[in-house]
């Protein structure tokens, strides 16, 4: 008995020593594996419903078939679930609504083309627009409160946005805006933000076509167990994949190609337990941007995004490759990014964190490793707590960025290696660790303002080691 107790004690001592000998980063990456195992996955009965059986007609731009597709989705859900099949061919449609236990599956050669007529996307539905709760134009693909839903297959889903339809609403001549056309900057965006700052109830925040607030492509609100796999999503009016208050999301082998204004790739907002892997991004804004609400609305819900894993992705064009913010008032924790590539003269930054004193938010526990950057326009790593000036907001919410670990990142060309803008008291950015990184062909070095605690370990810029 004594011998067994002694052996058990030795075993416990060895386990304790082994754990303590691991670095903090090693323990964190082990935790990422545990997070991944906790992500609940979708499962569907072996039952198919073809959209053509419900009246969808292929190849007729003037005959939208979204009502037929929505009927197929409802029938599938009511029967206990299965696949709604989009066969080979081109189908034109307006907005569709996903229901529980439905997998919308596009066969190879299938295309869904959304008709860009604004009136099809009203009446408005409950959503968020740039982090503000509201009723706005119906997203192209929408779900609210559903469980076990998927969009899969090797087909193409085309939002058909361009400078003549949705994109000019941003208000910039670059994207086709002309005098007399509706624009979000002509009042809609400002009106929505003022309603939020004045704590107007959400049911009164009803946006109209004249407000010109473009809808997202795929918008799932308060849903659980979601899979988006293999499809191509292109020409989005606004953000491409935008889950809000969701849990257990997998985005796998998806191509997100849309170079219009504000066409972010994947923006999990107040969403937990997310895996994004083997995806391709070529976007007009941030490729992946993690969010948790803007200003008062984000603080009201106080639901952070957390437990997000990104791996084996490629980012081409975009304002940022991996981004946290800027609508981050509910906070964020636990990001794990590895084995990604980024490369484009039109990619502004590789790794980006952004907030301000209106939005606040605590951003913590970010682990990034093994990233290869060909070139980016501005900085490989940028942290900015003075992002975007705002009017008529409470500026008493200082953001915090802490516990950031970046390792084995290489870049072949950029203006800056690391670019940091903190707040004047220098207490809001700390425990930033950059290790074993090599940045080549950097024209302006590092620039670090108002950062309390940033450590460089074996980091070189243009073959010269960086000193803390």
What's the arrangement of secondary structure elements?
Blueprint: H1 2-21, H2 24-38, E1 48-50, H3 66-78, E2 82-86, E3 89-93, E4 96-97, E5 102-106, E6 110-114, E7 125-129, E8 132-136, E9 141-144, E10 147-153, E11 156-158, H4 188-197, E12 218-221, E13 224-229, E14 232-234, E15 241-244, E16 247-252, E17 255-258, E18 272-277, E19 280-283, E20 288-290, H5 295-301, E21 305-311, E22 314-315, E23 318-324, E24 332-342, E25 347-354, E26 362-375, E27 379-384, E28 400-413, E29 416-421, E30 429-439, E31 447-449, E32 454-461, E33 464-465
Parallel strand pairs: 1-2, 2-5, 3-6, 4-9, 5-10, 6-11, 9-12, 10-13, 11-14, 12-15, 13-16, 14-17, 16-18, 17-19, 18-21, 19-22, 20-23, 21-24, 22-24, 23-25, 24-26, 25-27, 26-28, 27-29, 28-30, 29-31, 30-32
Antiparallel strand pairs: 7-8, 32-33
Describe the structure.
There is one protein chain. With 468 residues, the chain is mostly beta strands. It has one domain: Single-stranded right-handed beta-helix, Pectin lyase-like (Pectate Lyase C-like, 3 Solenoid), CATH 2.160.20. 14% of the residues lie in helices and 40% in strands. The strands form four sheets. The protein has a 21-stranded mixed beta sheet that branches. Strands 20-23-25-27-29-31 form a six-stranded parallel beta sheet, with no helix packed on it. A four-stranded parallel beta sheet has the order 4-9-12-15. The protein is globular and about 65 Å long.
